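Sample pair:
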Amino acid sequence: MTYIVTLTPSQIAKNEPDWLITQRFTKALPTELDTSPEGTRLAFLVCDNRAGSAGNGRREFSERGRFIILVGSVLRINAVGPVDRSITIEPMRSCPEAVPLDGPEGILAALSPAHRAAVEHALSGSAGYCGTETWQALRAALQQSHPELTPYIDWLLAQLNPVAFRPDDAADRAWQEQKDAADSLTRLTDFPHSALAAWDRPLNRDDTYLAGLIPEPFEQSLIEHDVRVGLGDMSQFFDGWRRLSDVLCDIHVLEDSTGRRLEIVNVNATPVENRLGTDMIYYHHPTHSFVLVQYKRLDPRGKEYRVDEQLRGQMDRLEKVSQLSSEPTRPHEWRLAQDSCFLKFAYWRDSATSSSDLAHGMYLPLSYARVLLDDDCTRGERGGRIISYERVGRYLVSSEFTDLVKLGMVGTVGTSVEQLRDLGLQRAREGYGASP
């Protein structure tokens, strides 16, 4: 369904201060309204100013008529008792300019009589909907007369219809791991997950995950703590990677209204079929500290990982990373342990999509992984070593790992951005898709 919510200027003035903060609107639906989850699940908020109200608050309406003023996606349909329903629209954004529905230049005039009648029916109450064919006609009319709305609609639809990763495809597996690394970074820094939520497969299978992001198209977001994408302070260290012939590099920078900045550099330096895995490297500017997480995929059925010489060699190389750290001399440099490298043994369900949920799995500090591999608890029936939930017993989950990093309890001491840059490029050339 494509929903249409109709409000008066006074209702908009009453609700808009809250929209600025929450980016969310919950609207009760008429009892008889169909709430089938099929269709686009987009929502248009329409201001009905046919009475000629001057408006108040942030918006002033000088013309009579009905106007599309906001567009959003229906996050969920809520049950409010035995029969009543409501929809929660989130996120929601202001249109660049109000889109008139009425008059010779209005959207309704561009529709066929049948589709015009369907939209009018949806506009006849406080909330209504139109079906798939009418939505397609409405979308074509909007794109024809208001092309500035196209990136808004594309961004919202990409969030509503996330890509399903194919577990038997090497490129999808790599993008899935890199996505989890990028989403982990937003959680570590308390940036909204929606900043990286809209994505589609890049044309080049060797491209980075960030190459497929569909950027939020809003110059001025409705929400006050807006997150903008651009190239930030670390560009001087990483932008040169884009000129290297053997490197695919994408840089996204998220910045909020307080000046906080998250700079995500996603680099691949080997063909996807030859790649050994994914690294997430989180660098914290104020403390000159970073944490490295290397991804390993658990078998989705048995949820186990059979240890081989490749993993042991990778662990040896990770040991060298910790040597970049110096001894703590100030209180903020103290850590719970010297571990700055972790292994994330992760699994995804076969139907996993590019939603904002993090992959399930176990975070193991490198030193703990060493102990496990020397203990009988990981020894298999034929003498090999197996990592699984039952054999490991103790591990960190995503929320626990995130809290430790946020509190500065784990990570290197006294490392520079230059060291991070060199490490990231080295790891990428060794066959890891890196996200520092």
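The longest strand covers residues 85-100.
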